[in-house]
Amino acid sequence: MKRINLRDMYPFIKTDVWIDLDDEVAQEIRRFDLNESAYKLRTYRHRAYYSLDRNDGIEQDILFLSISPEEYYERKLSNEQLYAAMCRLPEKSFRRIYAHFFLGMSKVAIAQAEQVDERAVRKSIERGLKQMAQFLNKM
């Protein structure tokens, strides 16, 4: 049995509170303290004070922005306009633009899938985007 003071482990405890622990538990606490000290030393040596693994919510706020109702409405409206513009395109241009921008396929991959020249795919996408821009400007 090992005797430890809880005040050393918990900063909010102001008085001495002694408890008896099994040797295995005390050994795990000691191992945790050593690992934490080693981590702090590595952080200091490598000047890695700002890590995304801090769990303080910084990366959460950056990656997942909460949008206002106005922004949500504007995005919905622009998505509807974009969909309407895409629906006015010829089938081939629609399919190629969808594959390139929404599915992330390269123009070469689209050309190989359709068994056409890459220039034809590129020109078709450019024409489709111009037609969409004209339609959206009229709206």
TrEMBL record:
InterPro entries: RNA_pol_sigma70_r4_t2, RNA_pol_sigma_r3/r4-like, WH-like_DNA-bd_sf. Residues 80-132 form the RNA polymerase sigma factor 70 region 4 type domain. GO terms for molecular function: DNA binding; sigma factor activity. It holds the Pfam family Sigma70_r4_2. SUPFAM superfamilies: Sigma3 and sigma4 domains of RNA polymerase sigma factors. One of its GO terms (biological process) is DNA-templated transcription initiation. This is Sigma-70 family RNA polymerase sigma factor. It comes from Paenibacillus mellifer. The lineage of its organism: Bacteria, Bacillati, Bacillota, Bacilli, Bacillales.
